[in-house]
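Marked as duplicate of an earlier ticket. Keeping the data here for the record.
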Amino acid sequence: MTASPQPPRSTTAPAAPARVPLLRLAAVAYGLLAAIALGWNGWAGRPWAYLDASAAAVGIRWGHDLALGLAAASAVIALSQLLTAHTRWGTALAAELARALGPLTLFECGALAALSGFAEEAFFRGALQPRIGWLAASVVFGLAHVAPRRALWLWTAFALAAGGLLGALFAATGNLVAPIAAHTAINAVNLRLLTRDR
């Protein structure tokens, strides 16, 4: 009986372990956040997608609320692109965010935007804002986006302002359609613009 030949030994270094995909982590984190929001409102007997019972009785004006959310998103996206193109700090912030995110596919950008748009709005607007008010919920939203690096602190300020706008949309319409549409569109477009060349 002859010994089977041994496979040649590789002379290259072992591959670095693959990083856990951002989308998988986001699905878990945002799934938990949405579950907390829905569970909290369900336990309290509150309509999860509405500011209050009277807003729930009025219902959703789909065309109006979607259009309002997308118009707000367009304004925020345009402003963020202007700041990125015409200010040093905007350019630096975009580069820092792009490095932190790494490469993302078009599908990943859309999925991350949908997950964050639904879960964050269900929690910060749908569950928190009716309990603590527009201003406090906007501040908590901004604090939830505090980054550990000083280079990203401007992103926290942007999140604080965006939280105020999203809260105003919720207060104006009485439901989560406009804030979810705005949040999802802002994240989808900005994520793609940040990561398309990486």
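See parent ticket for discussion. Residues 13-18 have pLDDT under 50 and may be disordered.
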